Amino acid sequence: MAGRFAQAVEFERRAVQLRPHYLAAWRTLAAAAGLSGDRDEAAAALSEAKRLQQDLSIAWIEAYHPIVHERDRTMYIKGLRAAGLT
């Protein structure tokens, strides 16, 4: 992860506009918004992600999300926690 979270939010907003049922974009928007400090947008994106995937949790991310580098996974989870994921 490059750490450009505000820019990532912009890209992910566009992604969910183009494909509103694309779960990965909603999860990534939630994480990026959480990491950029926009808790309201993070919570809204997380809400939509959870609507699309009811079993979404930190445990699910740790078990099934294919992030190769541990530091990237840790950062992604930090953003999702900031969005409100448990």
Overview of the molecule:
The protein is mainly α. It has one domain: Serine Threonine Protein Phosphatase 5, Tetratricopeptide repeat, CATH 1.25.40. The chain is built from five helices and no strands. It has helices at 5-18, 23-36, 39-52, 58-64, 70-83. Helix 2 crosses helix 5 (70-83). It is globular and about 30 Å long. The two termini are 22 Å apart. The relative contact order is 0.19.
Entry keywords:
Serine Threonine Protein Phosphatase 5, Tetratricopeptide repeat, 86 residues, mainly alpha, 5 helices
Tally of individual domains: 1
Q: What is the helical fraction, as a range of percent? A: over 70%
| Mean pLDDT across every amino acid position | 94
Quick one: overall form?
globular
CATH architecture annotation name = Alpha Horseshoe
What is the N-to-C order of secondary-structure elements (H for helix, E for strand)?
A: HHHHH
CATH class: Mainly Alpha
Question: Layout of helices and strands, plus pairs?
Answer:
Elements: H1 5-18, H2 23-36, H3 39-52, H4 58-64, H5 70-83
Summarize the structure.
By secondary structure, this protein is an all-alpha fold. The chain has five helices and no strands.
